[in-house]
Design a protein that fits this description.
Elements (H helix, E strand, L loop, with lengths): L5 E3 L5 E9 L5 E3 L9 E4 L17 E3 L2 E9 L34 E7 L15 E5 L6
Parallel strand pairs: 1-8
Antiparallel strand pairs: 2-6, 3-5, 4-7, 7-8
Length: 141
C-alpha cells in the first residue's frame, strides 16, 4: 500500500507499507534483511530497478506469527548512474549533484513497483505490483 499513486518526478521517495501474514505458527527467519528487508523501486520506460546495497552481510530479521506491517520507501530515482569519465556495461544516466555522484530522478511517466526478493522467504508471496505515475515538477523562473 502506497501513500500515493501520483508523485512529482523529483526523486522524492513515496512512503507506504507492505503487509505480510505469517500463518506458519512460528516466526520466520529472513536471512537477508537489508534496507527494511523489502526494497521496492519503480520500473518502466526501459528503467529496471535494482536495490542500492549489496546482497551480502545484511542483518537477519524474525517475522512474527500473524500480520506484520513493514514501512517502505519506494525510490523514484535511478538506482545507478555513471560518474564523469566513467563507463557502464549498460546504458545509465549521468550522475548529478555538486560532486556528480548522485542518482538523478526518474523522468515523468508510468511505472510499476518492483520488489527485490533476495530477502523474501520462498513461502511468502511477493507484494502485488502497484502502478505509479510520476508527473513533471513545476519549473520556477
Amino acid at each position: 500500500m502506497l501513500d500515493t499513486a501520483v508523485a512529482a518526478a523529483d526523486g522524492t521517495p513515496i512512503g507506504g507499507f507492505v503487509e505480510v501474514t505469517n500463518t506458519t505458527g512460528m516466526p520466520i527467519s529472513v536471512t537477508d534483511a537489508c534496507a527494511g528487508w523489502i526494497p521496492i523501486g519503480l520500473s518502466g520506460h526501459e528503467v529496471l530497478y535494482g536495490p542500492g546495497f549489496s546482497e551480502r552481510n545484511c542483518l537477519p530479521l524474525e517475522l512474527p506469527v500473524g500480520i506484520s506491517r513493514t514501512p517502505i520507501q519506494v525510490l523514484t530515482m535511478y538506482s545507478i548512474c555513471t560518474e564523469p569519465g566513467g563507463a557502464a556495461a549498460v546504458p545509465t544516466p549521468p550522475c548529478i549533484g555538486p560532486r556528480h555522484n548522485q542518482e538523478p530522478p526518474l523522468p515523468p511517466g508510468q511505472y510499476k513497483t518492483t520488489t527485490w526478493i533476495g530477502g523474501l522467504v520462498p513461502s511468502l508471496a511477493r507484494p502485488e505490483e502497484v502502478r505509479v505515475t510520476l508527473v513533471p515538477t513545476a519549473k520556477h523562473s
